Amino acid sequence: MTTTENRSYPKFGAEIMQRPVRVVDLTREIFEGMPMWFGHQKTFINTNQTHEQFRKTYNTHLGFEAHNLLISEHAGTHTDAVFEYDPNGPTLDKSPLEYYYGEAICLDLRSVQYPSFITPGDLQAALDRSGQEIRKGDTVLLFTGYGDATYPELAYTEKHPGLNRDAAIWLAEKGVVNIGVDNVAIDHADDTDFSGHVVCGEYGIVNTEGLANLDQVVNQRFLYFGLPLFIRNGTGSPIRAIAVFQN
Length: 247
Hints:
Layout (H helix, E strand, L loop, with lengths): L10 H6 L4 E5 L18 E6 L1 H8 L7 E5 L7 E3 L20 E8 L11 H11 L8 E5 L2 H5 L4 H4 L6 H9 L4 E4 L13 H9 L2 E4 L11 E5 L10 E3 L3 E5 L1
Parallel strand pairs: 5-6, 6-7, 7-8
Antiparallel strand pairs: 1-11, 2-3, 4-8, 4-10, 5-9, 9-11
Helix pairs in contact: 3-6, 6-7
Pfam families: Cyclase
Organism: Mycolicibacterium agri (Mycobacterium agri)
GO molecular function: arylformamidase activity
C-alpha cells in the first residue's frame, strides 16, 4: 500500500479521509529479520500479551494485544540526528523539527550504477532533467532504484551507489537541510570514509535512509514529512515518511 487510494477504512473513517490531497507512503515495513546495515542492532519483535491472555489475567471482557520491539534507532526507513556522525552536533531531542518536514524534490539517479559514485555532475544532470530547482531549506530525495531492486536481499546493504564527497558538498552548498535516499545509506557501499555523513556533520544537516516508492514522486515537488520519535539523547529514529501533494 503506497497511497491513500489503496487503503481501506471503516465508513466513518473513510469520510474523514476524503481530503483534497494525495499522500504517498515512502516507508519500508518494520519486521523481524529486516535487513540492517552491519553496524546496527538487528530487529526483534515478540508478543507481550494476546487478547486472550489479557482477558484471563485481568478478568476483563475486552482484551488488549501488545508487542515488544527491540530495534535500532537506525532501522528501516529512518532519519539521523547530527549527533550520530558529529559528537558536537545536537541529539534528536534537541534537533529542530524543521530538519524533518518541509518542501522537497526527488531526483532521478537511476543512471548511476554500482560501483559508480554519485557526482556533482550526476546531480546537476538529474536536476536539469527534473525541471525543478533546489531552494534553500529543501529536502532532496535521491531515487537510485537500488532499494526497490534489491530489498530485502543482502545486496541491499552491500551493493549500492552513493554520494561522493563533492556531491554531498554540492547539495549542502545549495542549502539542502535533509538528504534522503532509497538505499541503506547515503554513502556508497564501499566508502569506508562515509563521505556523505562527514559532509552532513560539517554543514550541520541531516540525512534520511531506507526510503521506498520514490518512483511515485520522482521529478516532482511536494511536501515531505519524516518526523522522528522524541528520543532523549537519540542519534536517530525510525520514521513514517510521506510525500503530500495538493490536488
